[in-house]
C-alpha cells in the first residue's frame, strides 16, 4: 500500500524497538492475527480496527486520527456529519469520508489509505504541505479549530439563508456571536485566571476557553502533579508586575489558573519538547510522567459545576524517538474494555500492563523514549 | 549511588532529615545492593522488594534480609546501624531464567539460625519455597502455571501458621496454599464457597487435598497488595479498580470497603493496634480509613506521583501523657524501652500497658510513612484532632482525667469486653457525649468491629478498661454491632444507614458515582493531611519502606537498600572505623568477590523438576 511517489522517510522511524512486538512490522499482514488475538467471541460488534497507511512522515496525522476515532462522541458527530447532505469538499468532509469508510468496512480489521484526507490537509495548510515530521499536538489543534470553523461557518450560512427567507434582518448582532459547535461541546473547557493584587487585595478574574491543556512536565511525577503545578499560584513581581485597575498602578500580584468548566473530553498535552538556548534547538524531555486510567482534577475553581467528574483514559498519542523533528508517533486506545496499539498500518492488541512502557524514562541520559504525549480522558457522566 | 552523596547530581538527594524527635541520618556504609554496587537498569522490571527476618541468633546478629533485583535474589546478614554492610558474602544468591522474583516473605515462626522458610513469588505466576540458609530444600507451587498464569503481586505467610500462605496475582485472584500439599497435575476445579459484592471464594474440588485450598476473586483488575491485621483475623486488599476491601479472613466475610479518589490503589498497611488502615495509590494520595467506623478519616497530599508503599512506624507511634502537641524528646524514652521483635504488636501492647499501669490521661499520635514513584519519602502524623475531629482537645483532656480517676484500674476490673461493659460504666459523671470516643482509643479495634468471634476471643481484654464509659457510648457501640450483624447477613458491605447501603448497592457497577458516599467522600469533606517531612531520597522510584527499631529502611528500583539511623542511634556509628578503613574494606571485598562467588544458579525447568521430586 505504499505510494511509490512518496519518499519513504517513514521507514527509518520503524527501526525503533518496540518490546511487546512479536512480529516484524509489515503492513497489514498481522490483520488476521489481531482478529485471532481478540477472539471471534470477544470481537465487538460494529467495531473496526483499521491501520492507516503512512504517506511519508504522516504518522503525526495517523496517530491523532486514530485517537480521535476512539473518542466516541467525536466519532459519532463526524459520522453524523457524513450522513448529512453532500457538501463541497473540505477537511471535515474528508475526515467524515475516512471515518465512514472505516466504520462501514466489511472486514473487521485491515488497512486504509487516508489519501484524500492527507492531500486535502496539504492543500489547506502550507505547514503540513511537505514530507517533514510534524508535531502531533499542533496537528490536533489545527484539526479541531478547522472543524470548529467549518461548522461555525455552516451555521452562519444556514442562519443567513433562513433569515433571507423570513426577511428578518434585525438580528445582525447574533451573527457576530460565536456559535458553539459540537467540537466545543466535546473538547472545550474553561479556565479562570484569578489575579489578586497584593496591595488592595482585589481579585480580578478572567475566563479563558481551551480545547486542550498544555502542561509542563517534571521528572518522576504524575499527570496529576503536572496539573496541580499548572494551577499553582505564581507571584507577579519586579518586571512582571500587574496593572491593578483599583490601584491604578502596577502592583505585585498573585496569579493562579484553575479549571472552571470541565470538558467532556479532556485532552492533555505534555510539553515534552523544550527549547534549549545553548543548542538552538528543541530537545525532548523523556521524563517519566505516569498517567492513571482514572482521573479527577484537583485544580478546579470552587464556583462551577461538575468539578469532580471522573475521567477515563481513552487514548494516548505516544511520541517515540529523541526529538520533535525525528522519531515516530503511535497511538494506544481503549476500545470495549481492551487496549489496542495503532502504529500507522499496524494494529495490535496490548495488555493494559504494557501501558507503563509509555510513561517515559527515569534516566536523564537517554532521550530516546516512547512516552505519552497527548492524553485523552473522557468524562464518565 | 545515592548513599555516598557529594556528587553534582547527588546534591538534591537528601541524606538526612529532621523531625521533632530528632535527626534521621542515612548510613552510607550500611547500604545493601548487588555485590558490584552498580545501579540496576530498572526500566520495565519488577519492583525491588525487601523482606526481613530475625533468626534468634545467639550472637545478637539475628537479622537477615532478602531482596530481589531484576532476575536476581539475594540473602544477606543485616547488620543494621551497628556495622557496615559486607556485600562480598551473600549467604545466598539466586539468578532466575524465564521468570523474575516479584515479592517474598519469611516465616517468622519457624526461623532459626540453621533454617528459614522464604516464599518467593514470580512474574510468571509461580511460587517457590526456599531455605537460603540450608539451601537444599525447595518446593515449587503453580509450577505448571495451571492455577494462575499472571504475575504474583504479593505473597505472605498466614499469621501464626507454619504451613499456610496466601498469594495474590495481577489477575485479581488470591490463593491459599499449604506447603504440605501438592498442586496436582491438572488445572483445579473450583466450587463456590461464598460470594459477596465484588468478591467470590471458591474451594478446590478434588479427591485428595491439594493446592490451592481456596481461591479468592477480589474486585476487577490486578490485586496489588494485601495485608493481614495485627491480630491476623482480618485481611485488607487493595486493587487496581481503586478499592480497598477488608475481609474477615476466617469467616470469609466482607467487613468494609473504600474507593480511592481516582485510579488504582497500590499499597496498604494497618496501624499497630489494628484500628486504622492506610492506603496509597494512583491519586498521589495516602488515605486513612477507620477500621471500626468503616470510613475515610483523612487523606494526605505530599507525593508528586503514585504512592508505592505505606507503613506505620510502631516505634514512633506515641502515647502522650501531657499536651499531645508537644513531643519534647519523649521518643527517646520509647526507643529505650524494649519491645519484642514482633513489631506489629509492640505499640498495641504499649498502649494497653500504659493504660493499665497508670491512670494518667492518654492521647495517641500515630506515625506512618510513605514512599512513591516521585522518589520521595513522606512521614505523616495522625493526631487526635484528626482522629476525633469534633472534640476540642483541652476539654477532652480534662474530662479524660475525670474518667480515668473514676474507672477502676483495668487490671483489677478484668471485665470481659464482650459483655457490653455496663458493669463499669460511670453514669454519675456528667461527662459530655464526645468524650467516650477518646477513651475508647486504647481499645483494640477488633473488638469494636462487632464481629462476635473476635470479641469472644478475649485476647484484647489485656487489662484495658473497655467500655468504661457512659451510656451514650454504649448505645453507640451496640447500635454499631447490630448494624454489622445485619450487614453481614445481607452479604453487603458495612455502612451505617440503610439508605446509604442502598446507594452503595445501586452504584456498585459505577465507581464514579461513589463520590460523596462513605465509600469515597469528597476532598473537602475529610481533613487533608500535610506531610511532616517530604524528602527526595533517591534517583529512582522508591519501592520499599520498613520501620525497624533503630532505623528506617528504604529501597529504590536501582537496587540500593538504604538504612536511615533513627535519632540517637547514629552515635553508635562513631565507634566504627574511619572512612578510609571502610573504603579499604570495600576494595578488599571487591577483590574477594572475584574468587569467591557463592552463586546458586536456579533454572526453571529440569532443575526444578528434580527438586520437586524430592517432596
From TrEMBL, chain A:
Entry GO CC? cytosol; nucleus
Q: Which reaction does it catalyse?
A: Thiol-dependent hydrolysis of ester, thioester, amide, peptide and isopeptide bonds formed by the C-terminal Gly of ubiquitin (a 76-residue protein attached to proteins as an intracellular targeting signal)
Task: Quote one Gene Ontology molecular function term.
Answer: cysteine-type deubiquitinase activity
Q: Pfam family of this protein, just one?
A: UCH
GO biological process, any:
proteolysis
Q: Which UniProt keywords apply?
A: Behavior, Hydrolase, Metal-binding, Protease, Thiol protease, Ubl conjugation pathway, Zinc
Q: Does the record carry Metal-binding as a key word?
A: yes
Q: Can you name the source organism?
A: Gallus gallus (Chicken)
Q: What is its EC number?
A: 3.4.19.12
> What is the superkingdom listed in this entry's lineage?
Eukaryota
Stored InterPro entries: Papain-like_cys_pep_sf (IPR038765), Peptidase_C19 (IPR050164), Peptidase_C19_UCH (IPR001394), USP (IPR028889), USP_CS (IPR018200)
- Similarity remark: Belongs to the peptidase C19 family. USP12/USP46 subfamily.
Full protein name: Ubiquitin carboxyl-terminal hydrolase
TrEMBL record, chain B:
Q: Where is the composition biased (Basic residues)?
A: 476-489
Indicate, by first and last residue, each region the UniProt record lists as having compositional bias (Polar residues): 437-453
Instruction: Indicate whether Protein biosynthesis appears among the record's keywords.
Output: no
Alphabetized, the UniProt keywords read: Acetylation, Cytoplasm, Nucleus, Phosphoprotein, Repeat, WD repeat
* Location in the cell: Cytoplasm; Nucleus
Gene Ontology MF terms in the entry:
deubiquitinase activator activity
Assembly and interaction partners: Interacts with USP12; promotes translocation of USP12/WDR20 to the plasma membrane. Component of the USP12/WDR20/WDR48 deubiquitinating complex. Interacts with USP46; contributes to the cytoplasmic localization of the USP46/WDR20 complex. Component of the USP12/DMWD/WDR48 deubiquitinating complex.
Descriptive protein name:
WD repeat-containing protein 20
What gene makes this protein?
WDR20
Amino acid at each position: 500500500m505504499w505510494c511509490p511517489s512518496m519518499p519513504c522517510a517513514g521507514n527509518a522511524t520503524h527501526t525503533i524497538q518496540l518490546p511487546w512486538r512479536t512480529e516484524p512490522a509489515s503492513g497489514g499482514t498481522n490483520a488476521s492475527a489481531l482478529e485471532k488475538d481478540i477472539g471471534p467471541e470477544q470481537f465487538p460488534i460494529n467495531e473496526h480496527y483499521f491501520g492507516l497507511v503512512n504517506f511519508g512522515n504522516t504518522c503525526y496525522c495517523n496517530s491523532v486520527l486514530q485517537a480521535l476515532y476512539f473518542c466516541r462522541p467525536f466519532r459519532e458527530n463526524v459520522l453524523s456529519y457524513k450522513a448529512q447532505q453532500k457538501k463541497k469538499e473540505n477537511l471535515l468532509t474528508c475526515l467524515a469520508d475516512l471515518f465512514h469508510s472505516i466504520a462501514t468496512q466489511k472486514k473487521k480489521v485491515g488497512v486504509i489509505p487516508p489519501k484524500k484526507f492527507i492531500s486535502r490537509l496539504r492543500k489547506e495548510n502550507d505547514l503540513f504541505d511537505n514530507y517533514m515530521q510534524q508535531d502531533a499536538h499542533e496537528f490536533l489543534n489545527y484539526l479541531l479549530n478547522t472543524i470548529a470553523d467549518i461548522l461555525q461557518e455552516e451555521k452562519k450560512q444556514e442562519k443567513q439563508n433562513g433569515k433571507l427567507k423570513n426577511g428578518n434582518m434585525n438580528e445582525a448582532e447574533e451573527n457576530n456571536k460565536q456559535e458553539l459547535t459540537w467540537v466545543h461541546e466535546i473538547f472545550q473547557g474553561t479556565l479562570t485566571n484569578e489575579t489578586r493584587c497584593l496591595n488592595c487585595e482585589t481579585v480580578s478574574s478572567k475566563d479563558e476557553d481551551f480545547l486542550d491543556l498544555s502542561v509542563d512536565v517534571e521528572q518522576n511525577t504524575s499527570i496529576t502533579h503536572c496539573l496541580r503545578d499548572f494551577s499553582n499560584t505564581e507571584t507577579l513581581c519586579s518586571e512582571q508586575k500587574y496593572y491593578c485597575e483599583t490601584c491604578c498602578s502596577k502592583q505585585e500580584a498573585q496569579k493562579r489558573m484553575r479549571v472552571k468548566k470541565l470538558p467532556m473530553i479532556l485532552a492533555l498535552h505534555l510539553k515534552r519538547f523544550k527549547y534549549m538556548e545553548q543548542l538552538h534547538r528543541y530537545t525532548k524531555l523523556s521524563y517519566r510522567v505516569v498517567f492513571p486510567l482514572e482521573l479527577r482534577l484537583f485544580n478546579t475553581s470552587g464556583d462551577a459545576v461538575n468539578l469532580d467528574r471522573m475521567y477515563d483514559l481513552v487514548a494516548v498519542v505516544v511520541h517515540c524517538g529523541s526529538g520533535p523533528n525525528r522519531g515516530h508517533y503511535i497511538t494506544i486506545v481503549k476500545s470495549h474494555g481492551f487496549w489496542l496499539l495503532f502504529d500507522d498500518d499496524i494494529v495490535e492488541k496490548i495488555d493494559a500492563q504494557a501501558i507503563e512502557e509509555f510513561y517515559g524514562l527515569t534516566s536523564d541520559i537517554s532521550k530516546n523514549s516512547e512516552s505519552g504525549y497527548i492524553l485523552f480522558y473522557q468524562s464518565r457522566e | 549511588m545515592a548513599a555516598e552523596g557529594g556528587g553534582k547530581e547527588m546534591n538534591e538527594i537528601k541524606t538526612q532529615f529532621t523531625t521533632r524527635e530528632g535527626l534521621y541520618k542515612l548510613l552510607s556504609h550500611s547500604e545493601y545492593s548487588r555485590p558490584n554496587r552498580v545501579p540496576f537498569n530498572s526500566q520495565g522490571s519488577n519492583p525491588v522488594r525487601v523482606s526481613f527476618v530475625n533468626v534468634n541468633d545467639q550472637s545478637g546478629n539475628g537479622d537477615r534480609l532478602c531482596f530481589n533485583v531484576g532476575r536476581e535474589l539475594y540473602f544477606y546478614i543485616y547488620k543494621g546501624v551497628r556495622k557496615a554492610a559486607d556485600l562480598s558474602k551473600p549467604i545466598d544468591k539466586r539468578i532466575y531464567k524465564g521468570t523474575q522474583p516479584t515479592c517474598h516473605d519469611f516465616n517468622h515462626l519457624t526461623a532459626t539460625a540453621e533454617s528459614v522458610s522464604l516464599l518467593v513469588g514470580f512474574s510468571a505466576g509461580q511460587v517457590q519455597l526456599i531455605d537460603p540458609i540450608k539451601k537444599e530444600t525447595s518446593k515449587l507451587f503453580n509450577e505448571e502455571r495451571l492455577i494462575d498464569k499472571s504475575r504474583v503481586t504479593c505473597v505472605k505467610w498466614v499469621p501464626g501458621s507454619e504451613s499456610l500462605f496466601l498469594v495474590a496475582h495481577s489477575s485479581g485472584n488470591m490463593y491459599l496454599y499449604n506447603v504440605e500439599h501438592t498442586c496436582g497435575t491438572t488445572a483445579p476445579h473450583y466450587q463456590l464457597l461464598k460470594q459477596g459484592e465484588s468478591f467470590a471464594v471458591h474451594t478446590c474440588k478434588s479427591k485428595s487435598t491439594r493446592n490451592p485450598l481456596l481461591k479468592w476473586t477480589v474486585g476487577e483488575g490486578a490485586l496489588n497488595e494485601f495485608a493481614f491485621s495485627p491480630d491476623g483475623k482480618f485481611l485488607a486488599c487493595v486493587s487496581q479498580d481503586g478499592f480497598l476491601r477488608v475481609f474477615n479472613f476466617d469467616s470469609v466475610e466482607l467487613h468494609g470497603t473504600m474507593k480511592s479518589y481516582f485510579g488504582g490503589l497500590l499499597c496498604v498497611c494497618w496501624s499497630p493496634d489494628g484500628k486504622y488502615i492506610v492506603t496509597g495509590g494512583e491519586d498521589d494520595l495516602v488515605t486513612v480509613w477507620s477500621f471500626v467506623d468503616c470510613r475515610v478519616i483523612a487523606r494526605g497530599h505530599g507525593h508528586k506521583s503514585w504512592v508505592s508503599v505505606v507503613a506505620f512506624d510502631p516505634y514512633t507511634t506515641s502515647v502522650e501523657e501531657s499536651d499531645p502537641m508537644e513531643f519534647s524528646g519523649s521518643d527517646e524514652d520509647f526507643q529505650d524501652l524494649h519491645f519484642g521483635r514482633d513489631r506489629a504488636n509492640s505499640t498495641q501492647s504499649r498502649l494497653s500497658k500504659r493504660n493499665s499501669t497508670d491512670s494518667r490521661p492518654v492521647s495517641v499520635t500515630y506515625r506512618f510513612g510513605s514512599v512513591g514513584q516521585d522518589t520521595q519519602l513522606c512521614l505523616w502524623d495522625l493526631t487526635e484532632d484528626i482522629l476525633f475531629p469534633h472534640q476540642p482537645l483541652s476539654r477532652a483532656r480534662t474530662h479524660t482525667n475525670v474518667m480515668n480517676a473514676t474507672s477502676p484500674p483495668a487490671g483489677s476490673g478484668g471485665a470481659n469486653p464482650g459483655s457490653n461493659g455496663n458493669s463499669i460504666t460511670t453514669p454519675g459523671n456528667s461527662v459530655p457525649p464526645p468524650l467516650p470516643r477518646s477513651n475508647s482509643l486504647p481499645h483494640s479495634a477488633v473488638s469494636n468491629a462487632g464481629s462476635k468471634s473476635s470479641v469472644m476471643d478475649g485476647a484484647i481484654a489485656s487489662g484495658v478498661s473497655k467500655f468504661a464509659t457512659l451510656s451514650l457510648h454504649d448505645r453507640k457501640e451496640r447500635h454499631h454491632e447490630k448494624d454489622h450483624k445485619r450487614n453481614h447477613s445481607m452479604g453487603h458491605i458495612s455502612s451505617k444507614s440503610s439508605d446509604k447501603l442502598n446507594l452503595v448497592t445501586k452504584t456498585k457497577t459505577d465507581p464514579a458515582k461513589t463520590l460523596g458516599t462513605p465509600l469515597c467522600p469528597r476532598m473537602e469533606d475529610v481533613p487533608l493531611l500535610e506531610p511532616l517531612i517530604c524528602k527526595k531520597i533517591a534517583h529512582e522510584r522508591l519501592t520499599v519502606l520498613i520501620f525497624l527499631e533503630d532505623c528506617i529502611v528504604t529501597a529504590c528500583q536501582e537496587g540500593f537498600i538504604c538504612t536511615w539511623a533513627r535519632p540517637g542511634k547514629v552515635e553508635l556509628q562513631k565507634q566504627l572505623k574511619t572512612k578510609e578503613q571502610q573504603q579499604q574494606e570495600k576494595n578488599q571485598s571487591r577483590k574477594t568477590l572475584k574468587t569467591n562467588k557463592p552463586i546458586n544458579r536456579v533454572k526453571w525447568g529440569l532443575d526444578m523438576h528434580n527438586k520437586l521430586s524430592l517432596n
